[in-house]
Amino acid sequence: MEIAMRYELHLGDCLEAMRAMADNSVDSIVTDPPYGLSFMGKRWDYDVPSVEIWSECLRVLKPGGHLLAFAGTRTQHRMAVRIEDAGFEIRDMIAWVYGSGFPKSRNVGKDVPCRAGWGTALKPSLEPITVARKPLIGTVAENVLAHGTGAINIDACRVTAIDHHALAKNWERPTTTDMRGGNYIGGRSGGVARTTEASSLGRWPANLVHDGSDEVLAAFPDAPGQLAPVSMNDTPRTGQNVYGAMCRGRAGEPSAGSTNDGVVGFHMKPGTRRVDAGSAARFFYCAKTSRADRHEGLEDPGAQFEQGNTLRKVALTDTKGNNHPTVKPTDLMAYLLRLVTPVGGIALDPFMGSGSTGKAAMREGFKFIGCEQDPAYMAIARARIEHELAAEELREKERTKAEQQLTLFT
Predict the structure, then answer these.
(1) pLDDT in tens, 242-289
(2) Residue 96 is part of which domain span?
(3) For residues 305 and 284, what is the distance between their CA atoms, to the nearest angstrom?
(4) Within a domain: 119
(5) Euclidean distance between CA atoms 69 and 265, whole angstroms
(6) For an engineered disulfide with 27, which of 140, 172, 226, 345 has Cβ 3.0 to 4.6 Å away?
């Protein structure tokens, strides 16, 4: 299948839309389907998608293609089992952890005074993402060569480590956490993680994504002694043990596997040394959807989304903005797309909603197919995708112009 334009949107039942698609025609599926929780009384959330729907997803995916599907903690088991029953291989689960949720708990103490302080629910802080793959044809290498799918793009999703040499030399490092900046998640689609003299490719992407909130970071305090003290200087450490000044700092130790001259002239093995500092929470992290991200490409919704107005109240009224109740951050969807979609590949979202996956696909240079059965959400999705596509085309023109100017001066 070849999409004539960058994206195709189908209004109506996703099952019917996928049945019209060719076998083995998409490279990845990244989707936020119904969780089966009857969220806000929405009819579309009465159950998780059926085995029949996931079977169609399997059919249209290329061999080795990956499916990433969000779920709720209460119904993740049903989501994963139905995906597996459709013929997918469950590969992993990515946990998106955040600190901004609030418990929908009943205060039992109001009705039963002797149970003051008791409730009925925990604070929601995690949404699981099922990682599944269509069975390979042959080995991974053979499948990748034949279809371009079957593997995940590790280097494009690496997590930048904080290099102690960079800190010691006060080298300037990027501070943005925006996906386009590449600080935490590496380069753009198809590229490798940003590298400098101060850093390697970065840490391997984990099956955990968090929102960087204080609540989450509190669970990962700075831990300079996890393996050994960080090698920040080479001055003697006076007063340590009976040897005193013999115990130097470790800044001069070139690596964990090489020898090092001690101050008394004998060779010693450095052992395992940490080469970066900071909290253990050095995963890719992504906050919940910001107001700017939610409404980008749409008319200003005005006071409807001001603090104090619940999303439940907003979703039940007419609005100029994006009133979809479960909008995912574009940065998060871009990260997931880049993880499982080959360069220039086609990504499918059978449950598009307000179009966060499509918006992210435009940013990352992928082609996109989206399905949505609600006309109002379809209009919102189209506006958001068109806005991001126009912005990406403008950025590409600016990059081309800059490269041309650089060529003139070289």
Answers:
(1) 444 444 444 454 444 444 444 444 444 444 444 455 566 666 777 777
(2) 7-158+283-408
(3) 28
(4) yes
(5) 59
(6) 345
